Amino acid sequence: MTRHTRLVMSMIYWAFVLYIFVPLALMVMMGFKDSKFIGFPIRSWTLEWYIGVFGNSEVMSAFGYSMVIGITSTLISLFVGVWIAVLLNGRGFVGKGVIYGLTLLPALIPGIISAISFRIYAQLWGVPPGTGAIIWCHAVHNVPFVVLIVSARLGTLPKSYLDAARDLGADPLIAFMRVTLPYLRPALIGGSVFCMLISFDDFVRSFFLGGYQPTLPVLIFAKLRSGMSPEINAIATVVLVLTALLGIWAERTTRRLKKGY
């Protein structure tokens, strides 16, 4: 690679970094503005909006509601996704490719189409809009990501581990619980954090399948209809910080677990 090529690639990289982080920096700054409207110039600064986020019962209720939905749907996704991944990574069988394609289908369908389809399906089965419908929809949407992440980890599992367990008298279930499942812990942590963030951030499916209690993205959308304000920037910044901390924790934990094998 020539010096000119490296320079061009470096410029493209830093332009991409600025494209990503400048809007985020502006969003954080606007949360400190001592005014009810966002925009420049910022003549005075305040922490009122950020402090108000934690004192706003409506925001905290929506945050807790989103967490409950995210955690529950993630647990369901992990349970279903792991068993599908184990099935697909076993010995070849007729229809394996079809099952794999159908498993990945929910992740490929556009969000608006998926939300409308689930809304119609929920009405067909008499499932009322609300928590159960949202969890069901989020779990189905997240299963493909768990399957992909767990399958990638399963592909690196040495067959000698399972052979050794079976030679010692372990049946397939015991071998899975004591060998395969511990080996999958990095993938399970990564997949659970990924699914949790997707569910927490999901607006379209939560909007179409939600009841009277809004999730946090739906609440932010409702506030946006009355105009942008530093309060929305403060809420978004707090969520951004929490998301970043969760991602950093997951990355370090996953790296530490992988070094143990």
UniProtKB/TrEMBL annotation:
Transmembrane segment boundaries: 12-32, 62-86, 98-121, 133-152, 187-212, 232-250
Name of a matching Pfam family: BPD_transp_1
GO cellular component: plasma membrane
Chief place of localization: membrane
UniProtKB keywords: Cell membrane, Membrane, Transmembrane, Transmembrane helix, Transport
Membrane topology, record value: Multi-pass membrane protein
Domain ABC transmembrane type-1: 63-250
Places the protein is found: Cell membrane
GO biological process: transmembrane transport
Family: Belongs to the binding-protein-dependent transport system permease family. CysTW subfamily.
The protein's name: ABC transporter permease
Organism per entry: Roseibium aggregatum
Lineage: Bacteria, Pseudomonadati, Pseudomonadota, Alphaproteobacteria, Hyphomicrobiales
